[in-house]
Amino acid sequence: MAPCVLASFDWSEAKLHSGSGTGVGKKHWPMGQTDFGEAKRRIAQLRDEINYHAYRYHTLDDPVISDAEYDRLMGELRALEEAHPPLVTPDSPTQRVGAQPMDQFEKVVHPVPMTSLGNAFDDEDLQAWLVRIGRLLPDDISVTDLAFVVEPKFDGLAVALTYENGILLRGATRGNGVEGENVTANLRTVKNIPLRIPASSAGPSPPSRIEVRGEIYIPIADFNELNRRQSERGERLYANPRNAAAGAVRQLDSRITAQRPLAFFAYAIGYVEGVQQEPEGHAIGCQWEALDYLRRLGFPVNPDIKRSRDLEEVLDFIHQWTERRQDLPYEADGVVVKVDAFALQELLGVVGNAPRWAIAYKFPAREATTKLLRIDVNVGRTGVLTPYAVLEPVNVGGVTVRQASLHNFEDLARKDVREGDTVIIKRAGDVIPQVVKPILDLRLPDSQPYQLPERCPSCGEPAVKPEDEVAVYCVNAACPAQLVRRVEYFVSRGAMDIEGFGIRIAQQLIQEGLIRDVGDIYALDEKRDQLLALEGFAEKKIDNLLAAIQASKSQPLERVATALGIQGIGNVVARALVGAFPSMEALASVGVEELEAVEGIGPHIAHSVVDWFSRPRHQQVVEKLRRAGLQMEAETAALSPQPLAGLTFVITGTLPAMSRDQAKAFIEAHGGKVTNSVSRQTDYLLLGENPGGKLAKAQSLGTKIIGEDELRVLAGQ
Ligand code: IVH
């Protein structure tokens, strides 16, 4: 019997081995005159290198090269693949961006069913489970001999990833456990799912075939950011990370999935064939070793897991995480307890659609009932007014809750939440507590439906609700509450990252009239005396603050573009924008169509950008920032490559997704040129339906003819 079957396992060995990859050679390749064979070699080398760095970054959270260097490697790979389209393969890191939309998902039958889990709701349930198991064990093994692996139970979406000879071939949802959906294109966009294994050259050789099972989830911090952006755009908020993740995985357009902050944790091997000879001490006879193997292959494996010898240890683990579940960076709804040894798992088998050898101990629901004292309104930096509930303090899952989100006025009206109601409050992970619903039986007889605010609670100006939006706004440009939020956002970590500058300081400086717009932040060094007069501002604090402000001047353009606080522009979009329009001047003068031609930018954002820059007040702020010495040009390394540079295109016919103007803007945004008639100078004819005479001309000249899809590939999209 393998050493890990029983608790007599040698505990000195019981540590997961952490990967210690050394990376691949960093030889630089002269670009330009590569022939096919050389390109092939360099492409393979670049992919290895990029895969390794993606693994360091997304799985180990320990990058060894800068973002700019990573972008350079990606740019080089993209350029080589564009020059040699037959060399593009689905496992290339360039293919994480998403593929063409599909009409529907193909069904996939799981070779080994993906079972569900039985539940335990308290310690007695768990003990009863152990007793049941005990009865089924052979005479020579007692329950007290067992070892268990205990793992937080992710509240996400189960998927199965199939690799053949180290290449990710297929990704499927669990579906009903027997049959799922083929969501390969979507799962390829998940950054910590290796497209190739091992992810590091230090890992073991890949098995000939393996199905890795695990959970797709959205980290809580990313989820909050996602909802913050949704709310900023006046769009519907996601109810919880699970729904948002499930929606993204089942998206028919994987380019949209690629923009969601999905992540993966591997928790099991569905089946494996042809495991390569493993060095001494690397058997895969139990769950603990399987997780170690997966980790060494480069899969992200949850670090918050434990191997336990007895019920007491198992319960300890469960009780600890029940208390501290809010410390987990992902949503968990319980702990999965698994019998460690595969031989015993097999022996215990499956009953119905749940294995006998594992059980999910569910955390108690984090809901509570309390009184809603008042409905207050918060003013966001874009002027969005959002209602929130002020509550009689209540303990929910170990945390005292005094306020809860009411999302937006539409949601509030739908639930008909009223002041004075007794309401159910729910906490989901670190997400702001929410008001689930009022308890109507306990409603006070004189309660009144909530009325939309007519005025901004901060400046008293009239509130406005645009017809086509859910959100209600304060449109007063001088509203102090908005300014506080704008400054808070401008100095925040994801934007200019000015250390020591928080909302309190923003409030103080705005109240004292030292800041009237974000541009004034850079004039604070001329107002030292006024700063010294403020409460809590000593010399040292002022020195530090001014130094941090000064340091922020070297933040790259994409940070400056983020910090402006344009609706819908967070880090990711700003990066795409700056990639396509590498100076503030270019950004300020670009039109809606050109913007829409950039990958990841839809009509909403495009209008938002154009509208923002069209306002004289904003132009003045940008001018102030320019004079203060902020970066107004993109750093060359951060520039997105201009893959179409030097190429001339002619467009004919109706394209499937882009209008002609959009196609023209797209080509130009990627460095290409568009002319009206086909000549020897034309590199590509972009062909749509019902083409004109240009097609015959191109054929006669031997001009290359491509469709919209190929254009995107050429442009590295
Ligand atoms: S093991 C036979 N481990 O729970 C057990 N499942 O399975 C197979 N889940 O939707 C699953 N975290 O996605 C396992 N650490 C974990 C898990 C986990 C979450 C989910 C799984 C499935 C459900 C029931």
How would you sum up this structure in a few lines?
The chain has 717 residues and is an alpha+beta fold. It is built from 24 helices and 24 strands.
Bound molecules: 2-(butylsulfanyl)adenosine
CATH class of the largest domain: Alpha Beta
User: Which regions contain 5 or more consecutive residues with pLDDT less than 50?
Assistant: 5-34
- Which class do the helix and strand fractions yield? alpha+beta
Largest sheet: 7 strands, antiparallel
Q: Into how many domains do the coordinates divide? A: 6
Looking at this structure, what is the CATH superfamily of the largest domain? DNA ligase/mRNA capping enzyme
Helical percentage: 25-40%
Output the number of helix runs: 24
CATH topology term of the largest domain: D-amino Acid Aminotransferase, Chain A, domain 1
N- to C-terminal separation?
Answer: 52 Å
Overall average pLDDT? 88
Structural Rg: 29 Å
Chain oligomer state: single chain
| Count of strand segments | 24
What is the architecture of the largest domain at the second tier of CATH? 2-Layer Sandwich
Indicate the overall shape. globular
Beta content comes to: 15-25%
